[in-house]
Amino acid sequence: MIYQLNQYEILIFQSEDKKDFVATILEMPTISGVGETREKALQELQIAFEGAQEIYREQEKDMPPAIKLRKYSGQFRLRIPRELHYRLTRKAMIDNISLNQEAVYCLTKGLNI
């Protein structure tokens, strides 16, 4: 399957030397664009992305799937150290909420979302 750029997660950040901006695709980090402004970096990324689309077409290969288009169940299995399990359970009891709610809260807080 061939995707469009707007279907992907685009990350734009300043280069280490703070002179330029770099735009990349989360699902395909080897494709990037660089420019003096965010807009120019995004334009350059579009050009690089179009080149990548053409290569995928020529090779009759599917592009990496866009994470925005995947279906998420809201469930996943997580193995954690016993001490962390104890601490989360203790904190949930103190906060008078379920272990699941405590874990969701901690993940959300840690991700700054």
Description:
This protein has 113 residues and is of the alpha+beta class. Helix content is 42%, strand content 16%. The protein has helices at residues 38-58, 82-95, 99-111, and strands spanning 10-14, 21-25, 28-35. Strand 2 and strand 3 (28-35) form a beta hairpin.
Task: Give the topology, please.
Elements: E1 10-14, E2 21-25, E3 28-35, H1 38-58, H2 82-95, H3 99-111
Antiparallel strand pairs: 1-2, 2-3
Helix pairs in contact: 2-3
Task: Give me some keywords for this one.
3 helices; alpha+beta; 3 strands; Double Stranded RNA Binding Domain; 113 residues; elongated; 3-stranded antiparallel β-sheet
Number of helices: 3
Overall form: elongated
Uncertain regions spanning at least 5 consecutive residues: none
Rg (CA only): 20 Å
CATH topology of the largest domain: Double Stranded RNA Binding Domain
Sequence of secondary-structure elements: EEEHHH
CATH architecture of the largest domain: 2-Layer Sandwich
Based on secondary structure, the structural category is: alpha+beta
Mean pLDDT: 94
CATH class (first level) name of the largest domain: Alpha Beta
Termini Cα gap: 31 Å
Strand order of the largest sheet: 1-2-3
Counted up, domains total 2
* Percent of residues in helices: 40-55%
Beta-strand share of residues: 15-25%
The tally of strands reads 3
The major pleated sheet works out as: 3 strands, antiparallel
